[in-house]
Amino acid sequence: MPLQKLLSQIISNDTSHAQFLNTLSYMENAGARKISASEHSETVSLMILKHAAEEHRHAYYLKKQLDRIVPGICATYAREALIAPAESCSYLNMLDVLTSRYLKQEIGITGMDLRFAAYLFVTYAIELRADGLYPLYQLELSHVQHKVTVKSIILEEAGHLEEMIIQLAHFSADWQTHAAVIIDIEHRLFTKWIAAMQKAVTEQL
Q1: Above 80 in pLDDT, residue 198?
Q2: What is the DSSP letter of 148?
Q3: Each residue's pLDDT tens digit, 68-77
């Protein structure tokens, strides 16, 4: 099933839509927490602080949008309040683990250097995905004139992607070779997540 058709089906059902929106909020929050975990206690940069703050704000903004579907729905990140919870919860964690494993083996870095490099490559892959997912989601929202909107997030995610490209170019002249591997890992995890959401939506019909 094409992603756009899946998003259309999700939006058409208040329960699945709320769970999907709450899952996006969960992922933004999980991303913000991972960014903070990659910070050096003394040399943390303004860019990382800004990025973590914006991801936390996205999580809050998406959570607030839930009231535009059904007031009070999906109040927590409990598994029953997420869509395809197992895959949703493992998606970012596995991307982080597999990216760190690859970078350690191929580049030979460890410790804080590894955590920072993983932050750069994972964020790059996620921002590429967000650059495709959020606009498609907004397109379907606009098509049915839904009260939920993610237009402000789309603009900020595009800025994050530009920042990551600049940082990765500073990190390594060969960053695109490594990024291609990470993007392939992310694609496999995303495909698994989409399949799980398709199953969840079908069960709710």
Answers
A1: yes
A2: -
A3: 999 999 999 9
